[in-house]
Write a structure and sequence with these properties.
eight-stranded mixed β-sheet, 8 helices, alpha/beta, 8 strands, single chain, 237 residues
């Protein structure tokens, strides 16, 4: 279904992942996030490379299940379990339907990822999720994920980022807006969504992400993909 949530002028409230968003989410993220398909494909590569037999794969903030499907399609390991988690009941409903026919080893849970126990994990994915967690709680979440990963396991984070250099930030913002225009969003839609989401989606710089991974104890980490102001980080325990 095509995303037209912000196509009409109306009183704006903070962005939420309700039924209206769930119904158009796949179209919204494809038209709003540069490099989104590559992010998903790289998760598939990571499960091939770092997945382990007899372990769990966590998709935290699973939305409609695209990441979990990529994990399932690329998993070559034995006796693994995909645990897809989201705190939106509307997203969980969509995700459950998606995974029912695409991932036989998947379990979908509706809960807050900050309270979820992570255990026996060889892969944990935060795909456009950490940016919606309160900044003061992000280090604790990364620390918990690190504790729940097996040695050699990996954390994959995909996020919108900001830049400390004002000129670089201005350049990337302009290109991101042009990307949305090229994908059919009107000036009204772009402005309305920005106003709706600005208090909900709070970005970090690349340096902040790296420092957080270092503090958690990851032995190896890298920004393994970037497209405009969206970046993916891979961290190995």
């Amino acid at each position: 279904m095509r995303d037209q949530i912000f196509s009409q002028a109306h009183d704006l409230v903070d962005f939420t992942f309700d039924a209206n968003v769930a119904n158009v989410f796949d179209d919204m993220v494809r038209r709003s996030v540069p490099g989104y398909q590559s992010m998903i494909e790289l998760v598939g590569l990571c499960v091939k490379t770092y997945g382990q037999d007899d372990t769990n794969y966590y998709d935290l903030g699973a939305s409609t299940g695209a990441t979990s499907v990529a994990i399932s399609l690329n998993d070559t390991h034995r006796n693994t379990q995909i645990i897809a988690v989201d705190n939106s009941s509307s997203m969980v409903s969509k995700c459950t339907k998606t995974l029912a026919s695409n991932a036989a080893n998947a379990q979908v849970i509706c809960t807050d990822i900050e309270t979820l126990e992570i255990q026996n994990a060889s892969l944990v994915v935060l795909n456009l999720t950490l940016q919606f967690i309160a900044p003061e709680n992000r280090q604790a979440l990364i620390d918990k994920i690190y504790s729940g990963l097996n040695p050699g396991g990996v954390l994959v984070i995909s996020e919108k980022i900001h830049f400390d250099d004002p000129q670089q930030q201005q350049l990337m913002t302009k290109l991101h807006l042009d990307f949305k225009r090229a994908n059919g969003y009107s000036e009204l839609e772009i402005a309305a969504k920005r106003q709706s989401i600005e208090n909900v989606l709070i970005t970090d710089s690349q340096e902040t992400h790296v420092n957080r991974l270092q503090l958690a104890g990851f032995s190896t980490h890298a920004c393994h993909f970037q497209c405009l102001n969206f970046a993916c980080f891979l961290a190995v325990k």
